[in-house]
## 1
Amino acid sequence: MEQISQHACHGGTLTYCRHVSETLGCDMRFTVYVPPHPEGEILPAVTYLAGLTCTEDNFTTKAGAYRLAAELGLMLIAPDTSPRGDDVPDDEAWDFGKGAGFYLDATESPWDRNFRMESYITGELNDLITAHFPVDRARQGIFGHSMGGHGALTLYLRHPDLYKSVSAFAPIVAPTECPWGHKAFAGYLGENRDAWAEHDACILMRRSSRAAARPTILIDQGLDDPFLEAQLKPDLFGEACFAVGQKLNMRRHKAYDHGYFFIQSFMEDHLRHHKAILRDD
Ligand SMILES: N[C@@H](CCC(=O)N[C@@H](CS)C(=O)NCC(=O)O)C(=O)O
């Protein structure tokens, strides 16, 4: 792993990193914020998954998360949204290919060689961060925005031993029922709908048997979000949670759109949500 740059930030350090990913077959970048902490202490960590067209830098520069992360003693990890580089296949559209990895492992050619973001985030990246930063592997959470909200919800539901807390801003909750999801899943997973179902937060929630034992899930959604009706459909997730007894705090906010001004407005509540669940008992 190569350290690209390191910056003092609210008493802690923000590090931009680059490494050769074996899982994705390309160079990848990510950032890690380490809050001020006593020497030798290991810390709870929350991974943020960004949305379509984003890199590791959108959250890092626009979410306004680090002042409170410093106060709460939370590590924050911001990966990229897809494999990168000239050798990685791409699509002309902004909602498929690079910048649109959808946090799953593709099975269709030519995407299956590089587009393995689920294995990358939950495996290789997690191991790399544990090796280089003071993270408590047993106290990790995940959150995200839009496509990254889909990633956070599905990786949380698919990897319960890894992630203990989850929240999302304007998530895609039912990719099997919206145009972004149809396009991505058909491209990455082919036409097998059983494979699609494995990456749909609503279906995973309805199938889950441990909902009552899980902590509350926090979701914020702006009501002036242009993607709300056609792509995001948060009510479907509300119905799925209700059906299985999952506690859900879904908040709808008048006037807020889909962007990072919305995200930074509610960031504090998300960090406090994760800290409360990841507390050191
Ligand atoms: N294709 C449009 C929309 C893309 C979009 O809204 N992406 C969201 C995630 S779904 C985002 O976070 N964009 C980057 C940003 O706001 O910093 C664009 O590039 O303007």
Note: The chain has one domain: 2-277.
## 2
Amino acid sequence: MNFSLTYDKETKELIQNRINFTSKRINILPEQLRAVFPHLLETEMKFKMNEDISSYIDHTLLKPDATKEQIKQLCQEAIDNKFYAVCVNSNRVKEAFEFLGKNSVQLAAVVGFPLGVTDTNCKIFETETAIDNGATEIDMVINVGRLKDEEYFEVLSDIREVVKSVDESVKVKVILETCLLTKELIVDACILSVIGGASFVKTSTGFSQGGAKVEDVRLMKLVVGDLAEVKASGGVRSYEDAMKMIANGATRIGTSSGVKISKEKNDVKQNQIDSISDQNLNRNSSSSSFVNPKIALCGAFLTAAISGFFAGYVYQQNSQNSNKKNPKKKK
Ligand SMILES: O=C[C@H](O)COP(=O)(O)O
């Protein structure tokens, strides 16, 4: 499946203005920052959905009252449905690691969750502990208050320090908590995440005033281009929701409804198969090619027999008639 996003004039202007604004806050030249985002010169961004939706899903359980048994079930569901990852609180990483065993499902730990306001040193310690216990990805919450205060050095350093504390192979996702941000701050947070070295920008914790919105996912993708990926999370409840996020640039879906989404996707697939079969049945109901061959053969035989009978009858009638017209001919 192919998708594309267009840089409309308004969005382009917004992003360019925020690059200027952010560059001043972190004390670099706007040209230097602009050079990091060359895709902003394009008019369109194209991308593909190559794989099954299961491989987009971070199967998530972050409730404070989640039990060991529920973590076990989460891991088993992720294995059974071939989800990309499970996402758990850092204190549950050890158990999730054991439950996942040698399966290829990745293990993401949330850090500074859900408020993002813990000290950077706490985030680093939490990150390192989670990695030691088997986490392969880190979902850290940005410091929203400092972002709103325009303390961009602090926000950048918070991200940068967490990224630096892990091996390059570990993907760090920065949760922006978009429901608390203006469009302008979403763009700034994306810029800071990219230059901080994050692999992903992620919309929401699922614990604040709102979750992922299509327009936010789209804006985030237009800012980060190919420099980072976008994870849509919080309130993604259906296959339709998930597909909308993917069509707008998300390459990962963080959701506690992964099993439902996967099932809905299979139902959609089954419906498509059923409708194709129905179409075939309707198309072929008037032709013999879809009929049981034995019945077709009997039918053909009967048709031939009846035609033969009629042919014989017509011939006989014709002969009788011609004899009547020309009695000599019979002799
Ligand atoms: O990071 C993922 C979210 O916490 C999941 O939120 P959700 O329960 O609304 O799907």
Note: Residues 60, 62, 87, 205-206, 211, 233-236, 254-257 surround glyceraldehyde-3-phosphate (CB under 6 Å).
